[in-house]
Amino acid sequence: METLILHIDECPNWREAGERVTEALTLVGASGGEVDYRLVTETSVRDLPQFAGSPTILVDGHDLFPSEGATADVACRVYVSEGRLAGLPSVGEIAAALRQREVHVAQD
């Protein structure tokens, strides 16, 4: 499982996103999975159609929290987490999305 966090430096949540993803991977039994990071710039954003704001959490190239929010803007992302707007999903929400992703991959 390849996990990548697309981020911009101006949004402070990308480091914590990596910590939460690592914790969620452990919860779902996928510990040892490495989280990689890619800095998104004004130039590179055009080549990253999956980018939906910083941080975007990709698993095997797919947004773990897909939305209609893909953007060509170098901007921060807002998630709906536990019924509120937040800069990141919770560890539990990430774990649930990882489990759901595993189910979809197993069915393909």
Uncertain spans, ≥5 residues at pLDDT below 50?
none
What is the makeup of the main sheet? Answer: 4 strands, mixed
How big a fraction of the residues is strand?
15-25%
Can you list the strand order of the major beta sheet? 2-1-3-4
Total number of distinct structural domains = 1
Label the structural class.
alpha+beta
Radius of gyration: 13 Å
Please, could you describe this protein's structure?
This protein is an alpha+beta fold and 108 residues long. It has one domain (3-107). It contains two helices and six strands, in the order βαβββββα. The strands form two sheets. It has a four-stranded mixed beta sheet with strand order 2-1-3-4, covered by helices on one side. It has a two-stranded antiparallel sheet with strand order 5-6. Helix 1 (14-27) packs across helix 2 (91-107). It is globular. 28% of the residues are buried. The model has no long low-confidence stretch (mean pLDDT 88).
What are the defining features of this structure?
108 residues; alpha+beta
Secondary structure layout:
Blueprint: E1 3-7, H1 14-27, E2 35-39, E3 56-59, E4 62-63, E5 79-81, E6 84-86, H2 91-107
Parallel strand pairs: 1-2
Antiparallel strand pairs: 1-3, 3-4, 5-6
What is this structure, in a nutshell?
The chain has two helices and six strands; from the N terminus they run βαβββββα. It has one domain. With 108 residues, it is α+β, with helices and mostly antiparallel strands.
